[in-house]
Write a structure and sequence with these properties.
The chain is built from 7 helices and no strands. It is an all-alpha fold and about 160 residues long.
């Protein structure tokens, strides 16, 4: 595997996430059941989901759709995306492990744990956004490396 420019991957990732989430209203502006949908979009939906999926879900919030059923939305949008991601990661397991290792080295050199936390809290980076998929108290550096590796692997397909 050739040397990967992780800085470029990170910048592409951040650019793509900002585009996908640009219409997402701030958490404070969302009311009722729509708060749960907003969290679903910003924390659970895979980064590699299409722009269309992000837009469809964000539109429900913007239209203040009162009859949302989060379980139905998860069945329609999340489960197929997670399944697709998992299939790719299993099929490309060795490459994914190499990418994670490479990304981890880059993340360690470029982001201290506190810096990642600060960037996340100030909404200046989307790297740790899917922290909810990690069962244990996993470091933000590990989450960031996994995120970049998944993004790199799946986006190159």
């Amino acid at each position: 595997m050739s040397e990967i420019n992780w800085n470029k991957v990170w910048m592409e990732f951040e650019k793509e996430m900002r585009l996908k989430l640009k219409s997402l209203p701030p958490y404070q502006e969302v009311k009722g059941k729509l708060k749960t949908l907003r969290k679903f979009i910003s924390h659970d939906l895979p980064e590699t989901s299409s722009n269309k999926i992000f837009k469809n879900l964000i539109d429900l919030i913007l239209k203040k759709e009162p009859s949302i059923n989060l379980n139905d939305l998860k069945k329609r949008y999340l489960i197929p995306e997670i399944k697709r991601e998992k299939e790719i990661l299993i099929k490309k397991e060795k490459e994914f492990e190499m990418l994670k290792k490479s990304a981890a080295g880059w993340v360690e050199k470029n982001f201290l744990e506190d810096k990642l936390k600060e960037l996340w809290e100030k909404h200046q980076s989307w790297l740790p956004r899917r922290y909810t998929i990690y069962k244990n108290k996993t470091s933000l550096q590990k989450i960031a490396a996994d995120t970049l590796a998944r993004f790199k692997l799946i986006n190159k397909l």
